[in-house]
Amino acid sequence: MNAGVKTVNIDVKALGKVAVLMGGRSAEREVSLMSGTGVLAALQSKGVDAHAFDPAERDLGDLKREGFARCFIALHGRFGEDGTVQGALELLGIPYTGPGVMASAVAMDKLMTKRIWIAEGLSTPAWRQVHSAEETRAAFAALGSHMIVKPVREGSTIGLSKVLTLAECDAAYALASGQDPMVMCEQFIAGDEVTIPVLGTGAEARALPVIRIVAPDGNYDYQHKYFTDDTKYLVPCGLPEGEEAAIQALVLKAFRTLDCRGWARADVMIDGRTRKPYLLEINTSPGMTGHSLVPMSARATGLSYEDLCLTLLASAALDNPANGQG
């Protein structure tokens, strides 16, 4: 299904001096460097005056002092995808890619995201917040025979475990709490795993084609996401057309409910028995590596990686543009 995305002519000189923020201090630093390197090369190939900028090694104030006009955020995880960098850029008055401060902060917190989606009537798996191994075992009994245990504020499946037996609860809690003191248990939905990128803002936001993920033994972990070629990504996804359209509509509602802008990517599980889709989470600074899914979906609409990067950069904005320079 074509999402209506078209390559547009963009005056690259008008974009000014651009910083590609990459690296950072999160557990996803390695992936961020991969994303940022790809984005930097793509923008430079289009004639953009783009430069690498690692907030773990540079003072963000240098962005203002060195005359950067906008930022492409290729940071992942905490201190990059959670509203902190976005807030700093708001204060500096430098437009940036992706959702703003509040949307980024909320989306990074899986519990808060779920609470908002539930309040808006959007489907997401049942969950429990837990504070100990004992509470994790209680959640296992409450949620059913299979569940996912994961840090509330982490990404890329870091610290995540699929728990099949009561005996696995203690180790799963220990792994997740080692990444974040806030831990959640989530009902496991058996079925098709899909992901859906969104490009644009407000009424102009459009869901790109659905990607169906087929990982070895259903284990779509950190290694299979970024460092192997064993996972299959199906675009077209092979779902019935009506089902794909319904999932895209659900994801657009999820995107707009959190007041996202620019771009994001939502992860969804489809119950294999009922075919009901369940929202898992939304990523507000998706990966842009050679294995990443937003470029893959965009390519299915005819939008190249380079043009995708340029389109995203052109969408850079501020929550409070009156206070900025862009």
From TrEMBL:
Role description: Cell wall formation.
Active-site residue list: 28, 156, 292
GO annotations of cellular component type: cytosol
Primary location recorded for the protein, binned into one broad class: cytoplasm
Organism the protein comes from: Hydrogenophaga aromaticivorans
Name the UniProt record assigns to this protein: D-alanine--D-alanine ligase
EC number(s) recorded for this UniProt protein: 6.3.2.4
Residue positions binding Mg(2+) 2: 281, 283
A GO BP entry: cell wall organization
